[in-house]
Amino acid sequence: PLAQTHRDYWAERLRTLPQLELPTDGPRRHTLSRPGARVEMRLDGAQAVAWLAAIPPGHRYATLVAATLVLLHLESGQSDLVLGLPIANRDRTELQDQVGLHLNMLPLRRQLHSEASLEQLRGDCADSIVEAMEHADYPFARLAEELGVSAAPGRHPVFDAMLIYHQHEVPVPKLEGVDVEIHDPQSYTSRFDLDIEVWTTE
Fold first, then answer.
1. DSSP classification of residue 81
2. How high is the pLDDT of residue 89?
3. Are strands 103-111 and 80-88 parallel, antiparallel or unpaired?
């Protein structure tokens, strides 16, 4: 059955998972805590245009994934890494008109080799993302439960870093007779050791 094929694919890739060890200024807690902090960095127009112009549009996501893995490798010194990638599960016809957030998590696991170039890593990431997407219908929560993946104290059961890529700015809704603006509550929580969000703005 197709479901078993999906499960076997993930079971093979998530065997003996590594734990990300980022440098910290204190000992890791033994319980998960949600309080976090946010650091913003904006590329100026010239930098952004030059950087994006050098990357074919179809390769930008894979490039961001590769760059994130390199960052995690440099900060942790580890070569076996797992990065969480959220995807919207709206590829089924019956879900197209439903209201709500249909989201699944793809744990992308890559081995980094010192002799590989960023271009080679980007290509490997692109292939891995396409392959993982073919098996994305298997629910992440169910997968973790069936594989018996248990979290170490203070950790997520599968990965400790996540990358989110927003290709467009969130539009401000237009409602007749109502003024609408986006409000940042300035209350930051984090489900993982590191959440990286990349926004493309005009």
1. E
2. 58
3. antiparallel
The β-bridge relationship of strands 103-111 and 194-199 is: unpaired
pLDDT digits (tens, 9 = 90+) for 44-66: 655 665 666 677 766 788 888 99
Token representation of residue 55:
């990357």
Model pLDDT for residues 89-141, shown as the tens digit of each residue: 555 555 556 655 557 788 999 999 888 888 888 889 999 999 998 888 887 77
Do 83 and 65 touch, CB atoms closer than 8 A?
yes
Tokens 């493309």 -> residue: 200
What number of other Cβ atoms are within 10 A of residue 67's Cβ? 17
> What is the value of pTM for the model shown?
0.80
Q: Edge-to-edge strand order for the sheet containing 161-166?
A: 103-111, 80-88, 161-166, 194-199
Which contacts (CB < 8 Å, 24+ apart) does range 120-128 have? 121/66, 121/69, 121/70, 122/59, 122/62, 122/63, 122/66, 123/62, 124/66, 125/62, 125/65, 125/66, 125/69, 126/59, 126/62
Integer Cα distance of 1 and 58 in angstroms? 32
